[in-house]
From TrEMBL:
GO molecular function per UniProt: protein serine/threonine kinase activator activity
Similarity annotation: Belongs to the Mo25 family.
Entry superkingdom: Eukaryota
InterPro entries: ARM-like, ARM-type_fold, Mo25
Full protein name: Uncharacterized protein
A Pfam match: Mo25
Biological processes per GO annotation: intracellular signal transduction
């Protein structure tokens, strides 16, 4: 990639991050989460829910979107939505939800509401996560390590 294209891509990423931060409530709280992840007609569509989780995961794990990530994982409401999606019947959706959930657990500055939610469900979560995608954990060392770290973090609360 040429330096010009790289600089343009970085500028676009920065502009997008500024937009998502500035209009956080309108984008994430009013539209994205309730319309694409809650149990409603649009969100009940498998592909809609799956793509929404993949987009969310990408946004949260992109460095330029740090402010969006911090605000998103500070919400107990968002954590509850992701916890519900971890129990979805589709293994693909549960895997995508896990990638978002680990951001909540890894947050070193968890709000008390999120900590309480995780502590109140500590045993259930640990048990559930141990069995989550067991086949994948056998063949994917990174997934196995991430899952073990998330379980250990939850148990240490």
């Amino acid at each position: 990639q040429s330096p010009t294209n790289s600089a343009a891509a970085e500028q676009m990423a920065q502009d997008a991050a500024e937009f998502m931060t500035r209009d956080y409530t309108a984008i994430w709280e009013d539209r994205f989460v309730p319309k694409l992840l809650y149990a409603n007609e649009a969100a009940n569509n498998y592909m809609t829910k799956r793509m929404a989780l993949q987009i969310l995961s990408t946004v949260l794990l992109t460095r330029t979107n740090y402010n969006v990530m911090v605000r998103f994982v500070a919400s107990a409401r968002n954590c509850k939505v992701i916890l519900l999606l971890l129990r979805h019947t589709s293994p693909h959706i549960t895997l995508d939800a896990f990638h978002v959930f680990k951001v909540f657990v890894a947050n070193p500055h968890k709000p008390l509401e999120v900590v309480k939610m995780l502590k109140d469900n500590q045993i259930k979560l640990s048990t559930y996560l141990q069995g989550l995608h067991a086949e994948k954990a056998q063949n994917d060392a990174q997934f196995r390590d991430e899952k073990a770290l998330i379980i250990a973090t939850i148990q240490a609360l």
